[in-house]
Amino acid sequence: MQLDAKIPDGPLAEKWDRHRFEMKLVNPANKRKFDIIVVGTGLAGGSASATLAELGYNVKTFCFQDSPRRAHSIAAQGGINAAKNYPNDGDSIWRLFYDTVKGGDFRAREANVHRLAQVSNNIIDHCVAQGIPFAREYGGLLANRSFGGAQVSRTFYARGQTGQQLLLGAYSSLARQIAAGKVTMFPRREMLDVVIVDGQARGIVVRNLISGELETHAAHAVVLATGGYGNVFFLSTNAMGCNVTAAYRAYKKGAFFANPCFTQIHPTCIPVHGTYQSKLTLMSESLRNDGRVWVPKKAGDTRRPADIPEDERDYFLERKYPSFGNLVPRDVASRNAKEQCDMGKGVGETRLAVYLDFADAIRRDGRAVIEKKYGNLFQMYAKITADNPYETPMMIYPAVHYTMGGLWVDYNLMSTVPGLFVLGEANFSDHGANRLGASALMQGLADGYFVIPYTIGGYLAGTPQRAVTTADPAFKAATQAVNGRISKLLSINGHRTVDDFHRELGGIMWDYCGMARTNAGLEVARGLIQNLRAEFWENVKVPGDPGEFNQSLERAGRVADFLEFGELMLIDARARQESCGGHFNEAFQTQENEALRDDENFCHVAAWEFTGEDKEPAFHKEPLVFENVHLTQRSYK
Amino acid sequence: MNWLINTLGSSIGKKLLMALTGLGFISFLVGHLAGNLTIYGGKDAFNSYAAHLHALGPFVTAAELGLLLFAVIHVATGAILFYQNLQARPERYKVNKSGGGRTIGSATMPYTGFVVLAFVIFHLLNFHFVDKTHTTIFQIVSEAFASPVYVLIYIVAMVIVALHVSHGFWSAFQSLGANHPKYMPFIMGVSVAVSVIFGIGFGFLPVYISLFS
Amino acid sequence: MTKTINLTLKVWRQKGPHVKGKLETYHANNISTDMSFLEMIDVVNEQLTLDGKDPIAFDHDCREGICGSCGAVVNGRPHGPEKGTTLCQLHMRHFSDGDTVVVEPWRSRAFPIIRDLAVDRGVLDKIIQAGGYISVNAGGAQDANAIPIPQEVADKAMDAAACIGCGACVAACPNASAMLFVSAKVSQLALLPQGKPEAARRAIAMLCSADKAGFGNCSNERECEAECPKEISITHIARLNREFFKASFGSSVQ
Ligand SMILES: Cc1cc2nc3c(=O)[nH]c(=O)nc-3n(C[C@H](O)[C@H](O)[C@H](O)COP(=O)(O)OP(=O)(O)OC[C@H]3O[C@@H](n4cnc5c(N)ncnc54)[C@H](O)[C@@H]3O)c2cc1C
Ligand code: SF4
Ligand code: FES
Prior knowledge:
The structure holds 3 protein chains of 3 kinds. By secondary structure, chain A is of the alpha/beta class. Chain A has 17 helices and 21 strands. Chain A has helices spanning 15-22, 28-31, 43-55, 93-103, 110-129, 162-179, 245-252, 316-320, 330-342, 359-365, 367-385, 440-462, 473-492, 498-513, 519-539, 551-575, 599-602; strands at 35-39, 58-62, 80-81, 155-156, 183-186, 189-197, 200-208, 214-218, 221-224, 257-258, 263-269, 292-296, 313-314, 354-357, 394-403, 406-407, 420-422, 496-497, 540-541, 604-609, 618-623. A 5-stranded parallel sheet of chain A has the order 5-2-1-9-17. In chain A, strands 11-15-14-12-13 form a 5-stranded antiparallel sheet. Chain A has a 4-stranded antiparallel sheet with strand order 16-10-20-21. The longest helix of chain B has 30 residues, at 58-87. Chain B has helices at 2-9, 11-36, 43-55, 58-87, 104-107, 109-128, 137-144, 148-175, 184-212. Chain B has one domain: 3 helical TM bundles of succinate and fumarate reductases (Up-down Bundle). Chain C is built from 8 helices and 7 strands. In chain C, strands 2-1-5-3-4 form a 5-stranded mixed sheet. In chain C, strand 3 and strand 4 form a beta hairpin. The N and C termini of chain C lie far apart (63 Å). Classes of the chains: A alpha/beta, B mainly alpha, C alpha+beta. Chains in contact: A-C, B-C. At the A-C interface, helix 3, helix 5, helix 6, helix 11 and helix 12 of A face helix 1, helix 2 and helix 3 of C.
């Protein structure tokens, strides 16, 4: 199958306008005749549901949490980018576009990224209108801060709770549409399959997590906004419920999975401190605005940080990257931290940490200023570690944070299954091989507020569809398959818990498919995962019944999918014989240990097609064409 | 008028009623206390205060009816609140512990309220609804407080009133929406002061009377 | 460095909303003091699973104090004894070896128990649906800097907006009232110029919705403020009261 990204013609800056003009429209009176399913209520799904309902469509929205307000987007701390150029420091749509493409190490689609930069400003306008209390200057205008990978201040924020505030904005718009009867909300539902009728996505199967019942829902189009799959690593900064299940089920029904090996390791997280640990905590990247990263110059130095004199400290990011300093992109910062620890210069009990030091900033600006900027982050750090970051440097280490890979979508955000749209972190579209800070929130909201409302109309207006209800045999078949799997999981009754398997899977993925990868390691890992998967299906113990509130069963289903999906990541990582952004294959690096791309052979999106259980997935290539930016070796020196 | 019933029937409406009637009682108590302080001026001063008060005739009756109306509202609303709040948590906690918000005053509001109601009835029966054609009010009072049981009942009652007011006073302001970081500490201070003044002011009277009359 | 402790847990077990529940005793041994409370329950659950028993059901997701999913009453205190902390951020270093810890669900008529510690807080969504929004469709907004908002006002609105909808205020309130939750949203939107046009309608509609949901009445006990993990102040309740009076007596909204 030839992948067609459906990128509109014309000059980059005009593509989106032109496309909006050329797309077919659904007349306002007809919109109410269309039902749309949205799975997910994060920034992407929440904003999409609200906006589609505002336009007049009938929307059914699903999430697995007890309330749409709890989607994982709530946890985003740092901020959201927009090309407003309020600080007058030279920002523009073009610069945001360029920074994002470059930050993604030239593995994203130009047209998508440009559109993202274009609508970024509308997002801020809309969010302010919704009543989001963004940070402001004394004069009452909006404040900005800097994030990694950019030399302008373009990040809007609401204390350290930007994601929360943006999500609550989308949630409030959603609530308004629920009250208006345009959205029917189904919380505590887990999507377990997509239903395809005549080659089009026409519905879903969900499990009611309270009663355990399987429910089916039909619609004219299905929108997945189910977030990222970082939890394949077990330990990540993602919420416990984040999963690949929805996306992976869609993959098994024919949607291609793009660039699954592109995962982001965030440099500033609280280090791992015990085997019982269930998740890792991110400390917002905004901390790197004022914090200085360092390690002792001497390997194995166990003195307390305060006892290490200034000239025996190595501020390695400032030393290696004088122009971006501590604000290099995440992949670069993470890899450097790992490199320092590999050289034995790591600090803390486990030696797997570097310092993030605010002493200078506190001396310069005073404690009050630092507290105002980062108070809640400092408090969170103190709560978790029982260390006071005002007095002693924080200890940080990289952790899995975001997944750039996702279901392949075209310019309209439609997957390879007609009528199946994918938004937010669940798609692959805008971040290439590395996402810049504060751009995921931007993308989720761009997709939901400003892209899907148009493109889904184009699809619905231009696609003939027959009437389909949940009585269709396809729904029955899908339900039966889901049921079979649930019964199987419950019947094994082995000796190891779900979490135990998940932890082992995470270990394999982190060791072999984490910050640095080798061909040999990837191959070893594949064998390990296959064995683990086989053992899982013989030895997992899932207590309880299918027809009840059963959290072990929920987790078991997710881990079962991770066990398959992890292998797909390894396959993708092995196939990409270059390094780029978050994908670092040790065989491909510059003399300065930076990721070395191979634009000749790998300037493409790798999209994987499911071909059957235990069969190799089929590889499809979408070549990336850069007409507006010049491919360079990224340099942040 | 439907809107008014809805407003006053809502949870904040009930608060409003409690706050306004409560503040009404507090103002009344301030006046009552001021009047009672004439006892320290001796028998004649006290009797003449009573006489002056009665000379106001219809105003007194109006005030009494007003107080009665306030009492009915305050008690009835309080009873509804108590019942509804009990219903709102059908299964109680096995372990109860305060996070530091409640005070003895706030935690005991319905109970102290009930006791105050009982006391007020008792008090009215003793001093108000008595035949005063052949005695002066001072006589009635001093005879009553000749009994240590009476004194004790009054002292205990006044402590309970003080508790009730210690929460009621500032709480009324909060209910009316008057909570401002600049002024709230002052209101809180006044709340304590008023309850202490009521407690001691009213509570010491029976002692004084029993000792010196 | 890491210390471990042993605890006796008494956990509320209840199979469903209409079944009787009771406290069951478990032993949590070798608990690292660096663990969070939820990680401690994870450990207990792993053991229960291996022993062929039903693990303890409890809601949780972000485990960093922001999603508002988690929550239980620990020794009588919602989210446990630490101030300004959600259960997932409560670390075991605040407990001592040998402690007995009683864990109960949020108890309120408006929050039926789903199972064990998991309760149904759906009514909080209903309250927001009644009016916790600004009616603006995507696409119609003016420039974000068109209306300056004094920093102090934005900060105050943010203080209120920090509510995570966990329901601890209800759990803590001796009257099981949701007033702090309602006030946080009403207050946030009442403070901001964008929220003014709908302020009257919002205050009345949200309060009515909360009253209908079966919560108790606020009597200014201040337990909510003391237990709220985001330390939302009852000054917001006072603002809600003002907004409600303004709306009821000073606007034409019914
Ligand atoms: C700690 C942290 C901090 C971050 N900080 C920033 C930041 O400062 N700036 C920035 O730009 N980005 C940040 N990010 C990234 C950003 O938050 C996420 O990428 C983004 O919010 C994802 O939004 P989403 O709508 O795609 O998915 P999510 O918010 O993850 O929502 C997924 C939704 O799908 C539902 N769902 C998932 N699976 C199923 C299923 N099987 N069935 C039914 N429903 C399902 C869930 O219930 C949920 O509603 C951060 C991420 C983390 C982890
Ligand atoms: S007000 Fe506080 S306690 Fe109540 S729901 Fe919000 S965050 Fe939780
Ligand atoms: S799990 Fe999200 S707040 Fe505790």
